[in-house]
Automatic annotation (TrEMBL):
GO terms for molecular function: 1,4-alpha-oligoglucan phosphorylase activity. It is an enzyme of class 2 (transferase). It catalyses: [(1->4)-alpha-D-glucosyl](n) + phosphate = [(1->4)-alpha-D-glucosyl](n-1) + alpha-D-glucose 1-phosphate. Its cofactor is pyridoxal 5'-phosphate. InterPro entries: Glycg_phsphrylas (IPR011833), Glyco_trans_35 (IPR000811), Pyridoxal_P_attach_site (IPR035090). This is Alpha-1,4 glucan phosphorylase. Belongs to the glycogen phosphorylase family. Its EC number is 2.4.1.1. It comes from the Bacteria. Pfam families: Phosphorylase.
Length: 814
């Protein structure tokens, strides 16, 4: 049964001008006649906040009354982006707000642009969590997201002389209208010390305590009155620290002590797919997990007499291993604090937790030195040892006498410095473990988790990722959304499979004309954004070739650059050929400590400087790098792309979600047989995607047989010319050796990601892209077919699968 529409929200659309004026006067504190775009952003946000607040209270009241089963989604990262436009969309007030703002001579776009992104995440993993929150609210799944209220989110990227510069992201500096501080909700979180065993009962004599204070963010559902919660924890020094300062007068010491506690929630670690491995990071992980477990236990005990039925009412999901310590924490709370027998608690734990793995790369799997764990979380280490002992006893019954098997399975890596394997803790503590695309889930059970799968084959499953169509189509691409509305009706927002009906229109000349007009307008908008952020003029008539994602060797931005240089040299060699003009667009951040990734960013700029200023090239080729990639930049880029580069080495990209956003906005994919690219191919058809390169088994076979990159260099003249030009300083004349080391990672360093092996296939496939682009109607039909096939990649589908198969919940039960 849908929630009742509150009278105020029915009226607000007609009175929105008055409501904006009221908030300018009462909340923002400015004269409406003098309101700046920023003032208006705040005022409109408060109009929406008020509406959502009412819906939120109603949702919470209803769920509490029903003692609903809830999902608790634990994630170190939530890459939310901006909230205003999404909130207005959920309230169906976007049109009214735009109309209301005309009185102030402002557009909604310009006003909404004043809001800083909430960039509490690195990349795909954090954005997935944000899309999931949107879908959980929208499909009506009682849910809480839990994370950290980082004072500083993902660093802002600027480019100086082609090099990445990192600046802090003080996104909360001017406050945010979107958070609700919950002054009454605060939990102590303990660290350090030692464990005493008194009559066999463990007592954790901790050495430090910090308070976790709750700040809630609204997560509006669409097409429903449901609103879910993202609860973020801020670390605050316990009150007695201040008191001591007051008593002793040693303010400097007290302040530094206070900082020592509060720095836990200061800053997001800017690493994507490589663990930070620092003590502060471990404290962050435990801090937010402990607060979240205390919160869910308190909520349970408000609604139920004991914790015996916890597993029936809570499903706790681990977004990667970052919150894996939660398994030990729940055991500690149940056994140590609620005197539950171990075996009973362990059963509850297993029925409560589930875990998503996000990567196969061994170097990306999180482990913690036993010594560090002992120092920070001594009781948890004891619990982990006991879990491990019982698990290895069980494992031994599967393969008696096979000690190598047990050593591989152990929660403790005993080779070298002993380390706790967080993925193993997550698997042992969960009833379901999933990968994020069909290929990735299959590889999980064949490779890194094969021993676990031999014991528990049914524990492993697949949940292919998705993206929310509200943000990535309705909000980001109003042009295409309008065309879809007039062609299909508006139902696709909540039922993305309706896009299938577009297939019938793919060769319809009138529809093609409208579709291409939308794409062209989006490209004009993107070209303007490029000019604003880089100063480079690009032609919307060129093919917009887009690779936007974190900069990482496995994602192979460097392979893309090799193609750009190949094309540059080919145009110079043959200037009068019928070249399809191309604009190659990159965006993405490199982890601050990732030297090779930063060198790739610099190379993109150096190649761009040469190519873009070569008068012989003109509009035939342009290369641009849009700085500071994030959700809002992505929202501008996706709708304007013609070609989506998804070129990771087969077997390395767990899923990808950028690939989905781009195809949903009508880009054709050039990609490897990797991650969700494979499922995109299955859904749009082999003829509507450009797949190239080695497939996963071929990658494995080539590596087994002894890959020799130099052979490709010697036998491929175009490749040799490109690498020689880069290594020889043609693009860095002021410092000819700048890219020697980068090229040497390929030629002499083993070319770990097989760029040279895939080069020829990639370049040949790029020529096929040109051939198709020369036939606008054929290209357009394929672009339409791509949009039509993307229904399955809605995160609503993903969340329904999680609900049914992992969390055992029925969407819309309330
Ligand atoms: C979707 C998204 C990603 C993930 O991109 P991939 O191409 O899947 O790696 C990263 N960052 C932002 C800002 C995104 O919106």
């Amino acid at each position: 049964m849908p929630l009742r529409l509150t009278p105020s929200s029915a009226n607000i659309s007609t009175n929105i001008q008055a409501a904006i004026t009221q908030h300018l006067l009462n909340t923002v504190g400015v004269n409406p006649a003098d309101a700046t775009p920023n003032d208006l952003m705040l005022a409109v946000s408060h109009v929406a906040r008020q509406q959502l607040s009412q819906r939120w209270v109603e949702t919470q009241t209803r769920e509490a009354a029903a003692k609903a089963r809830r999902v608790v989604y634990l994630s170190m990262e939530f890459l939310m982006g901006r909230t205003l436009s999404n909130a207005l969309g959920a309230l169906e007030l976007r049109g009214a707000a735009a109309e209301g703002l005309t009185q102030f001579a402002q557009t909604l776009e310009n006003v909404a642009d004043r809001e800083p992104d909430a960039a509490l995440g690195n990349g795909g993993l954090g954005r997935l969590a944000a899309c999931f929150l949107d879908s959980m609210a929208t499909v009506g799944l009682p849910s809480f997201g839990y994370g950290i209220r980082y004072e500083y989110g993902m660093f802002a990227q600027d480019i100086q002389n082609g090099a990445q510069m990192e600046y802090p992201d003080p996104w909360l500096e001017n406050g945010t209208p979107w958070e609700f501080p919950r002054a009454d909700i605060s939990y102590p979180v303990h660290f350090g010390g030692w464990v005493e065993h008194v009559n066999g009962s463990p007592i954790w004599r901790h050495a430090g305590e910090v308070a976790a204070k709750a700040y809630d963010m609204v997560v509006p559902g669409h097409g429903t009155e449901k609103v879910s919660t993202l609860r973020l924890w801020k670390a605050v020094a316990p009150a007695h620290i201040d008191l001591n300062a007051f008593n002793t007068g040693d303010y400097a010491r007290a302040a530094s002590l206070k900082n020592e506690y509060e720095n836990i929630s200061w800053v997001l670690y800017p690493n994507d797919s490589t663990p930070a491995g620092r003590e502060l990071r471990l404290k962050q992980e435990y801090f937010f997990v402990s607060a979240s477990v205390q919160d869910l236990v308190a909520r349970h005990l408000r609604e139920h007499p004991s914790l015996d039925n916890l597993a029936e009412h809570v499903a706790i999901h681990l977004n990667d291993t970052h919150p894996a310590i939660g398994v030990a924490e729940l055991m500690r709370v149940l056994c140590d604090e609620h005197a539950m027998p171990w075996d009973k608690a362990w059963k509850i734990c297993g029925n409560t937790f589930s875990y998503t793995n996000h990567t196969l790369m061994p170097e990306a799997l999180e482990t913690w030195p036993v010594g560090l764990m002992q120092h920070v979380l001594p009781r948890h280490l004891e619990i982990i040892f006991r879990i491990n002992k019982e698990f290895l006893d069980l494992a031994a019954t599967h393969r008696p006498g096979d000690n190598a098997f047990l050593a591989r399975l152990s929660l403790i890596d005993e080779q070298g410095e002993r380390r706790v394997r967080m993925a193993h803790l997550s698997i042992v503590g969960s009833h379901k473990v999933n990968g994020v695309s069909a290929l990735h889930s299959e590889l999980l059970v064949q490779t890194i988790f094969s021993d676990f799968a031999s014991i528990w084959p049914d524990r492993f499953t697949n949940m292919t990722n998705g993206v929310t169509p509200r943000r990535w189509l309705a909000q980001a691409n109003p042009g295409l959304s309008g065309l879809l509305d007039s062609t299909l009706g508006s139902g696709w927002r909540l039922d993305l499979d309706q896009l299938q009906k577009l297939k019938a229109k793919k060769d319809d000349a009138a529809f093609q004309k409208s579709f291409m007009a939308v794409k062209r307008a989006n490209k004009v908008r993107l070209a303007e954004a490029i000019a604003r952020s880089t100063g480079i003029q690009v032609s919307p008539d060129s093919l917009f070739d887009v690779q936007v994602k974190r900069i990482h060797e496995y994602k192979r931005q460097l392979l893309n650059v090799l193609h750009v240089v190949t094309r540059y040299q080919a145009i110079l060699a043959n200037p009068h050929a019928d070249w399809v003009p191309r604009t190659v667009i990159f965006a993405g951040k490199a982890a601050s400590s990732y030297v090779t990734a930063k060198s790739i960013i610099r190379l993109i700029h150096d190649v761009g400087t040469v190519v873009n200023n070569d008068p012989r090239i003109g509009d035939k080729l342009k290369l641009v790098f849009m700085p500071n990639y994030g959700v809002s930049v992505a929202e501008t880029i996706m709708p304007g792309a013609d070609l989506s580069e998804q070129i990771s080495t087969a077997g390395t990209e767990a899923s990808g979600t950028g690939n989905m956003k781009l195809a949903l906005n009508g880009a054709l994919t050039i990609g490897t047989d990797d991650g969700a690219n494979i499922e995109i191919r299955q859904n749009v058809g082999d003829d509507n995607i450009f797949i190239f390169g080695l497939k996963t088994p071929e990658v494995q076979a080539l590596k087994q047989s002894g890959y020799q990159p130099m052979r490709y260099y010697e036998n491929t003249p175009a490749l040799k010319a490109v690498l020689d030009a880069i290594a020889g300083g043609q693009f860095s004349p002021d410092e000819p050796g700048r890219y020697r080391a980068l090229v040497d990672t390929l030629l002499w360093g083993g070319d770990h990601y097989l760029l040279l092996a895939d080069y020829a296939s990639y370049v040949a496939t790029q020529a096929q892209v040109d051939d198709l682009y020369r036939q606008p109607a054929a290209w357009c039909a394929k672009a339409i077919t791509n949009v039509a096939g993307m229904g399955v990649f809605s995160s609503d589908r993903t969340i329904r699968e999680y609900a049914q198969q992992i969390w055992h919940m029925a969407p819309d039960a309330l």
